């Protein structure tokens, strides 16, 4: 070990101290750094994920001269970072399911370290291959932490043969064998010689190669000597590892770099990395978020991820919703742990509220819009009942007014697209407004509207916008939001569907030669003898747009089907006033044009009253 420490000190002196690419090092030198705990893993790293074939392929690629790709290291010198954030040793003995966690470093770190930002999977694979074991589950066995189910395996290289021809173009026979097989040395008929991969790193000089060749009774095998020479060349002599060194101690910059450059094969978000940091300090966090996400999906159909959960915590318990490492130091994670039950309850109940108000995973087009609501319900204590309260029972109650303003804010926000693009500044501003202006009897819709007036996040609707809404067709996603505004607070016991008041099939002309064409012509001629009225009726801009659309209880929509409006209204006891038109309005098909014109005017007035728009 003394020799390895001396080599490490010599290498450290060659490292430049600027953010820049450093002199390449050999694979053996990298392994020395890991052995001496000079290379460590930050909490943002994921678990080791590579399987045996991928590790064997990595060693083969090195022997075939393929590039390893550049690593990225971060030199840790800041005392606060050493004290407050978790770092881990490399995993040496991996076993599926039973030994997958990296050993934690003792805090605070006493010396400067080099945290591996990009390259964990490759370096861990090399480290396991040279010094450790890999316990892979035997598929025919039940999962158990024993040598029958997950036997420890060690990496070897056959010095006498190449791999048989294969589809993966692997040449060098690196193979994992069970430790219990005692594979070292010749096979029975001496056609193979299996050398432990760790022995490769002992071949420091040509004398070492010669000594190994003789001491292991390989002197009659020239191919073995050549293979030993090639192994030394690739793993010891050549400087195959290039790396970029980040020396700045800006943790958030490092987080951003990691997000952009990590090459583990699965795209990572900052939420994933922050979750890794959090889990390293609170191991139960990952399982708790999974349970919460599963429960929300099961109860409401909404899919929520780490992003929503973590930002909801920041909105409610921090001063900044951005994913910054200092927002998840040990004190903050302890705060999260202490308030988890309340936070998770608020998140679940908020999405139940949204589900009850007719939103689903599609119509709730920006999940970030739930974060201010979670904060509001949590801050006011309304989270305890927002998911089950029948707000529609008493339209004059303060809770009904709160729900109305929430629905108004959500629909206006979606119609105006305010949650597109960069949302951190928006969420931070909303966090402040809600914190300063919320009560159990007041959701700060007007304060939000005033704050963002004449900005890109303005939710003010103009008269021109309303005219555009009146022309929205059934298929347009925005139709739901306008119909929801007209509907107001939904009854949680009812599921609503979009519906054509006058069934659309009345107006769609069947194909020529269809049996239905004659019936269509008879219906249209009877209802609309005036050509202008018929042209109006057959124009989809009249029968497929907002004035002919409504939100209808799902069960009623299914029973309504293609029933004519007048007949359906009589059967269900609905009057013309139910559709926002004068009580004496005729609902027969022949009166389609006056009905649509009257309803268009009525909807315009209703939206003007709800949204209080400014003149265009």
Protein architecture, described:
- The chain is α+β, with helices and mostly antiparallel strands and 616 residues long.
- The chain contains 25 helices and 14 strands.
- The strands form three sheets. It has a six-stranded mixed sheet with strand order 1-12-3-6-2-4.
- Strand 10 and strand 11 form a beta hairpin.
- Helix 6 packs antiparallel against helix 7 (222-237), helix 10 packs parallel to helix 13 (340-356) and helix 13 (340-356) packs across helix 14.
- The longest helix is centred in the C-terminal third of the chain and has 20 residues, at 592-611.
- It is elongated.
- The mean pLDDT is 87.
Features:
single chain; elongated; 9% strand; 616 residues; 6-stranded mixed sheet; 14 strands; alpha+beta
Largest sheet: 6 strands, mixed
> Strands across the major sheet, in which order?
1-12-3-6-2-4
Outline: elongated
Summed over residues and divided by their number, the pLDDT gives a mean of 87
Give the C-alpha Rg: 34 Å
- DSSP strand tally: 14
Helical percent range?
40-55%
């Amino acid at each position: 070990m003394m020799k390895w420490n001396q080599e490490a000190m010599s290498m450290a002196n060659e490292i430049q101290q600027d953010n820049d690419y450093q002199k390449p090092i050999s694979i053996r030198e990298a392994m020395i750094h890991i052995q001496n705990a000079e290379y460590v893993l930050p909490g943002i790293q994921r678990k080791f994920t590579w399987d045996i074939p991928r590790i064997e392929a990595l060693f083969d690629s090195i022997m075939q001269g393929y590039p390893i790709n550049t690593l990225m290291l971060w030199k840790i010198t800041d005392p606060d970072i050493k004290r407050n954030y978790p770092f881990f040793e490399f995993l040496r003995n991996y076993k599926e399911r039973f030994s997958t966690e990296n050993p934690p470093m003792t805090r605070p770190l006493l010396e400067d370290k080099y945290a591996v930002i990009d390259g964990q999977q490759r370096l861990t694979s090399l480290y396991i291959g040279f010094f450790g074991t890999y316990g892979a589950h035997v598929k025919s066995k039940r999962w158990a932490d024993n040598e029958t189910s997950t036997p420890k395996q060690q990496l070897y290289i056959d010095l006498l043969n190449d791999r048989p021809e294969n589809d993966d173009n692997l040449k060098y026979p690196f193979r994992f064998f069970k430790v219990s097989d005692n594979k070292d040395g010749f096979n029975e008929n001496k056609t193979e010689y299996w050398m432990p991969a760790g022995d490769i790193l002992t071949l420091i000089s040509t004398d070492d190669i010669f000594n190994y060749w003789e001491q292991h009774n390989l002197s009659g095998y020239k191919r073995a000597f050549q293979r030993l020479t090639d192994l030394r060349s690739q793993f010891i002599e050549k400087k195959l590892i290039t790396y970029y060194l980040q020396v700045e101690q800006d943790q958030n910059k490092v987080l951003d770099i990691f997000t952009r450059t990590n090459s583990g094969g699965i795209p990572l978000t900052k939420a994933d990395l922050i979750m890794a940091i959090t889990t390293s300090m609170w191991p139960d966090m990952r399982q708790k978020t999974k349970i919460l996400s599963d429960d929300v999906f099961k109860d409401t159909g909404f899919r929520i991820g780490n992003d929503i959960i973590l930002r909801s915590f920041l909105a409610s318990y921090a001063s900044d919703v951005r994913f910054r490492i200092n927002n998840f130091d040990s004190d903050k994670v302890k705060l999260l742990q202490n308030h988890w039950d309340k936070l998770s309850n608020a998140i679940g109940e908020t999405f139940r509220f949204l589900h009850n108000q007719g939103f689903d995973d599609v119509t709730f087009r920006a999940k970030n819009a739930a974060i201010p609501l979670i904060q509001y319900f949590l801050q006011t204590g309304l989270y305890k009942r927002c998911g089950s309260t029948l707000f529609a029972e008493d339209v004059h109650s303060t809770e009904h007014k709160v729900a109305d303003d929430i629905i108004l804010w959500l629909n206006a926000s979606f119609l105006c697209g305010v949650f597109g693009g960069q949302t951190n500044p928006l969420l931070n501003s909303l966090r402040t407004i809600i914190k300063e202006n919320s009560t159990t009897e007041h959701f700060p819709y007007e304060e939000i509207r005033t704050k963002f007036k004449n900005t890109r996040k303005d939710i003010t609707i103009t008269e021109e916008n309303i005219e555009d809404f009146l022309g929205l067709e059934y298929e347009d996603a925005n139709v739901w939001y306008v119909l929801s505004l007209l509907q107001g607070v939904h009854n949680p016991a009812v599921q609503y569907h979009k519906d054509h008041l006058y069934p659309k099939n009345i107006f769609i002309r069947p194909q020529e030669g269809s049996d239905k064409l004659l019936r269509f012509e008879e219906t249209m001629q009877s209802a609309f003898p005036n050509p202008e009225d018929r042209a109006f009726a057959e124009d989809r801009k009249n029968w497929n747009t907002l004035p002919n659309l409504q939100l209808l209880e799902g069960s009623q929509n299914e029973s309504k089907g293609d029933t004519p409006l007048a007949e359906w209204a009589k059967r269900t006891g609905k009057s013309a006033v139910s559709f926002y038109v004068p009580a004496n309005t005729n609902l027969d098909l022949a009166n389609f044009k006056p009905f649509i014109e009257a309803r268009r005017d009525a909807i315009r007035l209703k939206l003007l009253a709800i949204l209080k728009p400014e003149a265009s």
